[in-house]
TrEMBL record:
Protein name in the entry: Uncharacterized protein
Keyword terms: Heme, Iron, Membrane, Metal-binding, Monooxygenase, Oxidoreductase, Transmembrane, Transmembrane helix
Lineage of the organism: Eukaryota, Viridiplantae, Streptophyta, Embryophyta, Tracheophyta
Cofactor(s), by name: heme
Origin species: Aegilops tauschii subsp. strangulata
Residues involved in heme binding: 100
GO function terms (MF aspect): heme binding; iron ion binding; monooxygenase activity; oxidoreductase activity, acting on paired donors, with incorporation or reduction of molecular oxygen
Membrane topology, from the record: Single-pass membrane protein
Highest rank taxon of the organism: Eukaryota
């Protein structure tokens, strides 16, 4: 990945999608009650059962993703892959009637936030830390957290100091 890659909007969106594939905010989705008795993969799911879907594992399934553990945004440029519930291989926003209604806004907000962070700062790792030392594993839970918090050094890259002042916001 280079700086120019991030100036390319389709690439930036592919970065967001690949990040949500590997690190969905809710790895087990929200629990839902089965509205009818069904058989899935040979298992009987009775009506009313609490169902959680391991979207984290689905998005890393080697049967449907090539090199699933590899972080490679290009996979979303090579093929059009829907991440808003239309493609069951990647479901960071759920699917069906209770899927996230803010999915497109969420994708745009994350892309905009990454764009701002890259535009305003030069990023590096703390001295002595190599890229391969960054631990991207998550601690298991309902919501995704990194096992080891990321440490990164942000250096302002724009010459207008006032751009970095805190702006009070009235709500
Ligand atoms: C990257 C950002 C976001 C992620 C990863 C995300 C993810 C999710 C997930 C996984 C669900 C549960 C879907 C299910 O139960 O099947 C959900 C539900 C929901 N999300 Fe989001 N969301 C994001 C942003 C937003 C935004 C920006 C809004 C509103 C402006 C929003 C509003 C909602 C609402 C209202 C529900 C409940 C829908 C229902 O229960 O019928 N989300 N979201």
């Amino acid at each position: 990945m280079s700086e120019t890659d991030f100036q390319n909007l389709p690439y930036l969106l592919a970065v967001v999608k690949e990040s949500l594939r590997l690190h969905p905010a809710t790895p087990l989705m929200l629990p839902h009650k089965a509205s009818a008795s069904v058989k899935v993969g040979g298992y009987n799911i009775p009506k009313g059962a609490d169902v959680t879907v391991n979207v984290w594992a689905i998005a890393r399934n080697p049967d449907v993703w090539s090199n699933p553990q590899e972080y490679r945004p290009e996979r979303f440029l090579e093929k059009s892959i829907d991440i808003k519930g239309g493609d069951f291989r990647v479901l960071p926003f759920g699917a069906g009637r209770r899927a996230c209604p803010g999915a497109q806004l969420g994708i745009n907000l994350v892309a905009s936030m990454i764009g701002h962070l890259l535009h305003h700062f030069e990023w590096s790792l703390p001295e002595g830390t190599m890229p391969e030392d960054v631990d991207m594993t998550e601690s298991p839970g309902i919501v995704t957290f990194m096992s080891m918090p990321l440490q990164a050094v942000a250096k302002p890259r724009l010459d207008k100091e006032e751009l970095y002042n805190r702006v009070p916001v009235e709500m």
